[in-house]
Design brief:
Keywords: DNA-binding, Membrane, Repressor, Transcription, Transcription regulation, Transmembrane, Transmembrane helix. InterPro entries: DNA-bd_dom_put_sf, MerR-type_HTH_dom, MerR_fam. The chain has 2 domains: 121 residues, Multidrug-efflux Transporter Regulator, Chain: A, Domain 2 (Orthogonal Bundle), CATH 1.10.1660.10; 82 residues, Multidrug-efflux Transporter Regulator, Chain: A, Domain 2 (Orthogonal Bundle), CATH 1.10.1660. It is mainly alpha-helical and 252 residues long. It is 65% helix and 3% strand. The protein contains 10 helices and 4 strands; from the N terminus they run H-H-E-E-H-H-H-H-H-E-E-H-H-H.
């Protein structure tokens, strides 16, 4: 199979195919008597597996994984896959944590802090919430609150967004949520900017996780096919003649 034939099959350039070969992502191509590259069904399976893995994981992980598979280090490759699955599982767990916690807040959750003089000191915020300053410091150490500091005195300053987050944290805490869960929820809320935006973000996040999960299923099938092709290649003593597809010679 000519480089151009393999490249066209996947919408790539012939240089990309040579780069993947040089990087160890696919095996070295056999050379004809005139030094032209001759790719096989094994190379085609390897390229399909790599492109599927990029969609399922990321480019860097996929490159390391494919180099390990192509070099025969299967256990190393499987560890990369396990890490990718574990990351997806953690993301799903975080999503469930945030979604479940938001039900505790309900539609009456404060969007902004109103009717108060800002910024608050730690003592003022504690009185506003009916808590002790020590409790707020504990929340800060847990990552629930991230107040600014006065550049001159170093004292904590709680602005409107900080007060709103403290009120949300207080609601979640009364609902029995642990501090690490509350820290996760408020971290996502800070990134989103508002509760409405967070709900939109969670919906988009859920769709992304579904796409990643399906991509991992597809990549598993392509990788399995590549492993089978490598096994067949090894069983014939690396003699690729049986799997070569006759084609006119072109530039290497």
């Amino acid at each position: 199979m000519r480089p151009v034939d393999l490249a066209r099959r996947h919408g790539l350039s012939t240089q990309a195919i040579r780069n993947y070969e040089a990087a160890g992502i696919i095996p070295p191509a056999r050379r004809s008597r005139t030094s032209y590259r001759d790719y096989t069904a094994t190379h085609a399976a390897g390229l399909a597996a790599y492109l599927a893995l990029v969609l399922a994981f990321d480019s860097s992980t996929s490159r390391r994984l494919m180099r390990a598979v192509t070099a025969g280090r299967l256990d190393e490759a499987l560890e990369h896959i396990d890490d990718g699955h574990a990351l997806l599982a953690r993301d799903r767990s975080t999503l469930r944590t945030v979604e479940t916690a938001l039900t505790d807040l309900g539609p009456g959750a404060p969007e902004t802090a109103v009717g108060i003089r800002l910024p608050y000191s730690v003592g003022e915020l504690a009185r506003h919430l009916g808590l002790s300053p020590a409790t707020l410091r504990t929340w800060e150490r847990a990552g629930v609150l991230v107040p600014r500091r006065d550049p001159r005195t170093g004292h904590r300053q709680y602005l409107a967004s900080d007060v709103r987050e403290a009120e949300l944290a207080h609601l979640l805490r009364r609902g029995g949520r642990p501090l690490d869960t509350i820290a996760t929820v408020l971290g996502e809320l800070r990134d989103a900017g508002s509760l409405d935006a967070l709900l939109t973000t969670l919906d988009r996040w859920r769709r992304d996780l579904t796409s990643r999960g399906r991509a991992q299923l597809h990549a598993a099938g392509e990788l399995s096919a590549y492993l089978d092709a490598l096994d067949r290649r090894a069983s014939t003593g690396s003699n690729a003649r049986r799997e070569r597809t006759p084609a006119p010679k072109a530039g290497a």
